[in-house]
C-alpha cells in the first residue's frame, strides 16, 4: 500500500536548507494497511477507471484516507441542507464554516502544509520514463509497483479516440500520444496490452494523424535522444547562444526563466548530438510510429512538420528562415575545426549553467521538464557524477500517487496552497477554535521563506535576488515567485497581529523587510509587477 511521507529526507545525496520542511513523497509498503483499507483503495481505483471519461481529475482519495486517519478530530458538524423555503441564518453559515474547516484540518500535514498534487499535463511522465531508460536506471529507480501505477495513470488518461492530449482535459495531440505510447512500450507493454487493445489503439491514432514526425519540438528532442528520431529533423538549439554578449537583442539571459532553464540542457544535448543506447526495443519503435520506413524519412522536411492537432500558432516565416540558415549553414561549420572549438566552449558554458541551477535548487530544477533534461545532460557528461546521483535522489519529490495512478508533478505547490488556505480560515472569524491548525501552518510559512540569495555571482548567471521570497513549493526549491511572496508576506503579517499563545511566535521583522525589498525589486517604471 502506498504511504505519503512528510518532511522525510534520508540518504547522502539529498540536501536541504530547512530540514526538509514541506517535502512530500510516496513510498510503497507491502505490509501497510489493513485488508479492509487495501480493498477500499482498489474500489477507489476501479471507480475512477469506470468514470474516467466523465471525471478526468482525481480527488486525492488515497491521501485523504491516510491523513484523516493520522489526524483524528472530534465530531465534524453535520451538513445543513437548505432549500428555497429554509432561511439561511448566521448560525447556519457559521456551522457550515466549522464543518469545512474541521474537515480541512484533518488533511493537514504535521509540518503545517496541505499536501496536494500539482499535475495534469500528460507530457511530464513520459520524460521521466525516457530519461531513466536512456540512463539505464529505469528499473533501479522505478520499482515494479512504481511502474504498475505509472501504467495505470497513462491508461486512465487515454482519450476515447485512442490518443493522449497535452493535458488530462485536452483533445488528443501528437505530442501527448507519441510520448505516452513510447513510455508504455519502454515500460514493457506490448501492442496487445491494455483494455480493449489500448496500446495498439494509441499507435493507430499516431499513424492515422501522420506519424511521430508531427510531434512538436520538445517531443522531437526527446524522441531523438531516445534514438527513435534524428537530430537532422530538429530545428537548431545551438549552445553558442550562451556566448553572445548581453547587449545582443536575442539573449538567453533575457528569456523567461522557465524557458531559459529548459534551453540550457537542451542546447547541451543538441550541441553534443547525443543519442542514447540503441537497445533491442529502439529499432522496433522506429518502425512502429512512422508511416514510412525510418531510413526513408525526409528529416529536413520533418523539422517543420507538425500535426494540425498540435499547431496552436504557425511559425512566422522569419523564424523558419533563421532556423533554415542555422541548420544548413551554421551547424555544418561548427562541426569542423577551428569552429568546433567554439562549440566546445559553448558546451562547457551551457553545462556550467546547468550545474549552477541544479545546486541552487537542491536538484529540483525550475520544474519537471527542465529537471529531466538536466538529469540526462548530467548523465551524458559523466554517468558516475555526483550531480547525476543527486538528480536521482530528488525524483521522488516529483511523483504523486492517487486513485488514477502515479503522475509527475510540476514540482509541488505547498506554499501556494498553504497561503490561500490560511487566508480562507482566518476570514471565517473562527480562529480561536482552530489554534492547532493555524499554529502548524504558521510554522510552515516561517520555515518556507527563502533566507539567502543564489550563490556566488548570481547576476552573471542571470538570476535575481531571492532573499526574503517565498517559492511556489518549498524553501529547498529556492525559486522565489512574486505572488507567492506577496501572499506569504500577507499571512505572516496577519499572524503577527494574533496572540502568540494561539498561533506561535511571530516572524522576525527583518524577514518582513526582506520580503518587501524583494517585491519592490520586481516593480518596473510603469508601476507594474
Index terms:
two-stranded antiparallel sheet, 529 residues, 21 helices, single chain, mainly alpha
Structural account:
This protein has a two-stranded antiparallel sheet with strand order 1-2. The chain is about 50% helix and about 5% strand. The protein contains 21 helices and six strands. The radius of gyration is 25 Å and the shape is globular. It is mainly alpha-helical and about 525 residues long. The two termini are about 45 Å apart. A hairpin with a 6-residue loop joins strand 3 (about 165) and strand 4 (about 170-175).
Strand content: under 5%
Protein structure class: mainly alpha
- Unreliable sequence segments: none
Q: Give the strand tally.
A: 6
Mean pLDDT: 95
How would you briefly describe this protein structure?
This protein is mainly alpha-helical and 529 residues long. It has helices at residues 35-50, 61-70, 90-106, 124-134, 138-141, 144-156, 174-186, 198-208, 217-226, 257-272, 281-288, 299-302, 317-334, 339-360, 368-381, 386-394, 414-427, 435-448, 482-496, 500-503, 509-521; strands at residues 2-6, 24-28, 164-165, 172-173, 399-402, 405-408.
List the helices and strands and how they pair.
Elements: E1 2-6, E2 24-28, H1 35-50, H2 61-70, H3 90-106, H4 124-134, H5 138-141, H6 144-156, E3 164-165, E4 172-173, H7 174-186, H8 198-208, H9 217-226, H10 257-272, H11 281-288, H12 299-302, H13 317-334, H14 339-360, H15 368-381, H16 386-394, E5 399-402, E6 405-408, H17 414-427, H18 435-448, H19 482-496, H20 500-503, H21 509-521
Helix pairs in contact: 4-7, 4-15, 7-8, 10-14, 10-15, 14-15, 15-16, 17-18, 17-19, 19-21
